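Standup notes
- DV: blocked on the single-chain target, sequence here:
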Amino acid sequence: SAAAMLRLPRRWLASFSGPRQRSIEERLTEVFAPVHLEVLNESHGRKQDESHFKVVIVSDSFAGIRLIARHRAVNQSLLDGDGALPFHSLSIAAAKTPEEWSQNQDVPASPKCAGGDGRGMLR
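- DV (later): unblocked, structure below
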């Protein structure tokens, strides 16, 4: 099952998980059938704002695809009907094949957001 494929770090399980985060997890699972998926709500202030997310995704779907194309595919899979992300910020910390992930599980820290905190978004 899709739920069985998601292995979230214990430190993330206790954090807030809202409807937007669950939607991201479901969509990425549907599109990429990942063997490992982490979606972290990095929203500033209230986590309930659900404006900033960090993704680590490991999937056989990325085999033979360059890194930039992987990132574009992840972004594309999350766009709304208007062709925009339905939240302020998406950091794709890792988009790897299972073989790449088994060799290197390093995940860089997210960059500081310079475009505001996403407050006041209507979506």
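- Follow-up: The two ends are 30 Å apart (CA to CA).
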